[in-house]
UniProtKB/TrEMBL annotation:
Belongs to the FAH family. Keywords: Metal-binding. Residues 11-211 form the Fumarylacetoacetase-like C-terminal domain. One of its GO terms (cellular component) is mitochondrion. Coiled coil: none annotated. It comes from the Eukaryota. It catalyses: 3-fumarylpyruvate + H2O = fumarate + pyruvate + H(+); oxaloacetate = enol-oxaloacetate; acetylpyruvate + H2O = acetate + pyruvate + H(+); a 3-acylpyruvate + H2O = a carboxylate + pyruvate + H(+). InterPro entries: Fumarylacetoacetase-like_C (IPR011234), Fumarylacetoacetase_C_sf (IPR036663). This is Oxaloacetate tautomerase FAHD1, mitochondrial. Its EC number is 3.7.1.5, 4.1.1.112, 5.3.2.2. Signal peptide: none annotated. It comes from Oppiella nova. GO terms for biological process: carboxylic acid metabolic process. GO terms for molecular function: acetylpyruvate hydrolase activity; acylpyruvate hydrolase activity; metal ion binding; oxaloacetate decarboxylase activity; oxaloacetate tautomerase activity.
């Protein structure tokens, strides 16, 4: 059933600035606790469908991330038990309307539209937990039109997966099929209509998307 998490998962919980060098490139410091925001489940887009450039957006950025698919319901989960709640993983993108996010940061307003618009969460296929030995040692990469733009490793995460699950579950009950986006390494940058974005987890999983003007 988890292979269809996109169809029934109720929320996407995202972690910002979880790689030190990305925090620096965004002009900020690493937070002292996880920075959490949400995307609606309508943000999902799967391979074969386009990423739609949001109407009125001036700068759309790619952010490749490891997605953690929750395997069973839990709240107030301890770090020591957190991995028992992981059902599997997926390679994902956190597409970001950067100009809108920058404005929101300046004005102190929410990032919801900048981060949660339709097709802002492209995902690859479900990877069972058993297929990944150590999720804290995975290469994440992103190419735009064949050019390597991001090449990082989950070993550089500031807050590791057990800590993220434990922290998030203090505030949001995690449900079967929910997805946690664990942050992006440095190298984020713009894409344009007509571009092809390809992302992968080492050679375990890769997925590709076309960027399309939103008519």
């Amino acid at each position: 059933r988890l292979t269809r998490f996109v169809e029934f998962g109720r929320k996407i919980v995202c972690v910002g600035k979880n790689y030190g060098k990305h925090a620096q490139e965004m002009g900020g410091k690493v937070p002292d606790k996880p920075l959490i925001f949400l995307k609606p489940a309508t943000a999902y887009v799967t391979e074969g469908n386009p990423i739609k450039f949001p109407v009125g957006c001036g700068e759309l950025h790619h952010e490749v991330e490891l997605g953690v698919v929750i395997g069973r319901k839990g709240s107030n989960i301890s770090e020591s038990e957190a991995m028992d709640y992981v059902g599997g993983y997926a390679i994902t993108l956190d597409m970001t309307a950067r100009d809108w996010q920058s404005t929101a940061k300046k004005e102190g307003t929410p990032w919801s539209i900048a981060k949660g618009f339709d097709t802002s969460c492209p995902v690859g296929s479900f990877i069972p937990k058993e297929s990944i030995g150590d999720p804290n040692s995975l290469q994440l990469w992103c190419k735009v039109n064949g050019n390597l733009k991001q090449n990082g490793n989950t070993s550089d995460m500031v807050f590791k997966i057990p800590h993220l699950i434990s922290f998030i579950s203090q505030y949001f009950t995690l449900e079967t099929g929910d997805l946690i986006l664990t942050g992006t390494p440095e190298g984020v940058g713009p894409v344009n209509p007509g571009d092809t974005i390809e992302v992968g987890l080492g050679d375990l999983s890769k997925v590709s998307f076309q960027v399309q003007a939103n008519q």
